[in-house]
Specification:
This protein has 453 residues and is an alpha/beta fold. The chain has three domains: 4-128, Response regulator (Rossmann fold, 3-Layer(aba) Sandwich); 165-312, Rossmann fold, CATH 3.40.50.300; 315-446, Helicase, Ruva Protein, domain 3 (Orthogonal Bundle). The chain has helices at 12-24, 35-44, 61-71, 86-94, 107-135, 148-161, 177-186, 205-213, 230-233, 249-261, 287-292, 298-304, 321-335, 345-353, 359-373, 386-389, 406-420, 425-432, 436-446, and strands spanning 4-8, 28-32, 49-53, 55-56, 59-60, 76-81, 99-102, 139-140, 143-144, 167-170, 195-199, 214-215, 227-228, 237-242, 263-264, 273-274, 277-283, 307-310, 342-343, 378-379. The protein has a five-stranded parallel sheet with strand order 2-1-3-6-7, sandwiched between helices. Strands 11-14-17-10-18 form a five-stranded parallel sheet. A two-stranded antiparallel ribbon has the order 4-5. β6 (76-81), α4 and β7 form a beta-alpha-beta unit. α5 packs across α6 and α17 packs across α19 (436-446). The radius of gyration is 29 Å and the shape is flat.
C-alpha cells in the first residue's frame, strides 16, 4: 500500500493540485486548511508525510510541525511557503523538517521530493528495527557481546553484509577480525559461494603471488602442474586477505589491477581469467599510519576501505567479560569432558581487573587452560595463567569478590562500570547498555552506594 500524505494549505487551489498530483502517483492524500483541521485529520488517519504551508489562518506552520513531530516523531514534514527565507528554512530543518520549498513549485519536483522524504522515513524505520533486534541479542553470527561498542559493530556488520562493497576490518590482534569476516560472508548474497582466506603475514613473500594468482606448469622451479590461485578459487564468493598491510608493495599494485579489471592471469600463463569475488581485508595496524609508513599503497587503501569496521579491544568492552567467560567455560568443559561448574569469586575478580593485551583470544586461552588444569568444581586463582594471578586489584571494595551467582556477577559488572566511568552514572549506564533509571534500580537492589565510598 502507498503511504498516506497530509496536505495542509489554506489555498484550495494548491491543496487540490497536490491532492490530484500525488493521488495520480498512487498515494492516499488528505487535505486540511488549518492547524485545527490538520490535527483532526490525525485522529482519523496515520500519515507518513505532511506537506505544511508556513502561513496558516490559525497559526504558524512551524508550530504545526512541532505538534506533528510530538505526536509521531517518524513523520516526515515538508514546509511550503510563498515567503522564502533562509532563516526560516534553517529554523524549520532544525525542528525536524525534511525540506523547505518555496512557492510556486514544479509538480514533478514535488513528486521527486515526496519520494525522497518517504524513502528516508523507510530507511530510518529499518534502522530503528535493526537496532531493536540487535538490542535483544547478545551476539552476531559467532561473535559475542552485549556492550554498546559491540552492538555498534553488529549493527555495522548487518548493514554492510547484504551489499557487495569491499570491507576493511581493523582491530588489534585477538579482537575477532576473522569472525567478523565470517559474519559478513555468511550474511551476504554470496553465502553459497566459497570464503577463501589467506594470511599475508604467514606466507613467505615469494609464495604469496603464486598463492594469489596461481601458476602454470614450468612457471618456476617446482611448478610441475597447473595450479589455480586463490583469486580464482574465490570466484562467486568472498576473499579474505588477513593482515593486508604485510603484502609486498609490488603485489599490492597487481592486486589493485585485479580489483579494477576483475581478471587474473596465472604466473607464466597467457590466458586471462575473469573473476567475481567480494574482497574482505583486515589489519591490526592503523591503516592511515600504514599508508604514511609505506606499508600500504594509498590507491589500494582507497579501493579496499569502501566500508571500514573497527573492532574494539576487550579493555574497552569489559561489560562483555562475564558473557565471554561463561561461553568459553561452557565450550571447553564440553570439549574436554571436565565437570567444571563455574568460576570462583577471586578468579572472576582477576578476570575483570586484567587489561587483556591479547583481547578475546587471550581470554579464550585463559579459560581453556583453567578448565584443563582445574582440580575442583570451580576455576580457582591458581588455575589461571600467571599474568592473571599477579594482576593488581583495587582495595577500595569496588572489586569485592562476588559469589558465583549471576546476580552477583551482575553486581560486579555494575561496580566495574562505575569505576571505569569515575562513578558517572550516565557513562556507566552507557557502558552496560542500560537506561540510567534501570541502572539506579539495579544499584539499589544490589546495595551499591550512589557515591564512591
Amino acid at each position: 500500500m502507498k503511504p498516506c500524505i497530509l496536505v495542509v494549505d489554506d489555498e484550495p487551489i494548491i491543496a487540490d493540485n497536490l491532492r490530484l498530483t500525488l493521488g495520480h502517483e498512487g498515494y492516499e492524500v488528505e487535505t486540511a486548511g488549518s492547524t485545527v483541521s490538520a490535527m483532526l485529520r490525525l485522529e482519523e488517519h496515520e500519515f507518513s508525510l505532511a506537506l505544511v504551508d508556513l502561513m496558516l489562518p490559525d497559526g504558524d506552520g512551524l508550530h504545526l510541525l512541532r505538534l506533528l513531530k510530538a505526536r509521531d516523531p517518524s513523520i516526515e514534514v515538508i514546509i511550503m511557503t510563498g515567503h522564502s527565507s533562509i532563516a526560516r528554512a534553517v529554523e524549520a530543518t532544525k525542528q525536524g523538517a525534511f525540506y523547505f520549498v518555496a512557492k510556486p513549485f514544479d509538480s514533478e519536483e514535488m513528486v521527486t521530493l515526496v519520494g525522497k522524504a518517504l524513502e528516508r522515513r523507510r530507511l530510518l524505520a529499518e534502522t530503528s528495527e535493526l537496532r531493536r533486534r540487535l538490542a535483544e541479542q547478545s551476539g552476531y553470527a559467532q561473535m559475542l557481546g552485549s556492550s554498546p561498542p559491540m552492538k555498534r559493530v553488529f549493527e555495522m556488520l548487518e548493514s554492510v553484509a547484504g551489499s557487495d562493497a569491499n570491507v576493511l576490518i581493523v582491530g588489534e590482534s585477538g579482537t575477532g577480525k576473522e569472525l567478523a569476516a565470517n559474519a559478513v560472508h555468511s550474511h551476504s548474497p554470496r553465502v553459497d559461494g566459497p570464503l577463501v582466506k589467506i594470511n599475508c603475514a604467514a606466507l613467505p613473500k615469494d609464495l604469496i603471488e603464486s598463492e594469489l594468482f596461481g601458476h602454470v606448469k614450468g612457471a618456476f622451479t617446482g611448478a610441475t602442474t597447473d595450479k589455480p590461485g586463490l583469486l580464482e578459487e574465490a570466484h562467486r564468493g568472498s576473499l579474505l586477505l588477513d593482515e593486508i598491510t604485510e603484502m609486498p608493495m609490488d603485489l599490492q599494485a597487481k592486486l589493485l589491477r585485479v580489483l579494477e579489471e576483475r581478471t587474473v592471469r596465472r604466473l607464466g600463463g597467457a590466458k586471462i581469467v575473469p573473476v567475481d569475488f567480494r574482497l574482505i581485508s583486515s589489519t591490526n595496524l592503523d591503516p592511515d599510519a600504514a599508508v604514511r609508513e609505506g606499508r600500504l599503497r594509498q590507491d589500494l587503501y582507497f579501493r579496499i576501505n569502501t566500508i571500514t569496521v573497527s573492532l574494539p579491544p576487550l579493555r574497552e568492552r569489559t561489560a562483555d567479560i562475564a558473557l565471554l567467560a561463561k561461553a568459553f567455560l561452557d565450550r571447553f568443559r564440553a570439549k574436554h569432558g571436565r565437570d567444571i561448574e563455574g568460576i570462583e569469586p577471586e578468579s572472576y575478580r582477576r578476570l575483570l581487573a586484567h587489561r587483556w593485551p591479547g583481547n578475546v583470544r587471550e581470554l579464550e586461552h585463559a579459560i581453556e587452560r583453567a578448565v584443563l588444569v582445574a582440580r575442583g568444581r570451580e576455576i580457582t586463582l591458581h588455575d589461571l595463567p600467571e599474568a592473571l594471578q599477579l594482576a593488581p586489584v583495587s582495595a577500595d571494595g569496588a572489586d569485592a569478590p562476588p559469589p558465583g551467582s549471576l546476580e552477583e556477577i551482575e553486581r560486579v559488572s555494575i561496580v566495574r562500570a562505575l569505576e571505569t566511568s569515575g562513578w558517572n552514572k550516565q557513562a556507566a549506564a552507557v557502558l552496560l547498555g542500560l537506561r540510567r533509571p534501570t541502572l539506579y534500580s539495579k544499584m539499589r537492589r544490589h546495595g551499591i552506594p550512589q557515591r564512591r565510598s
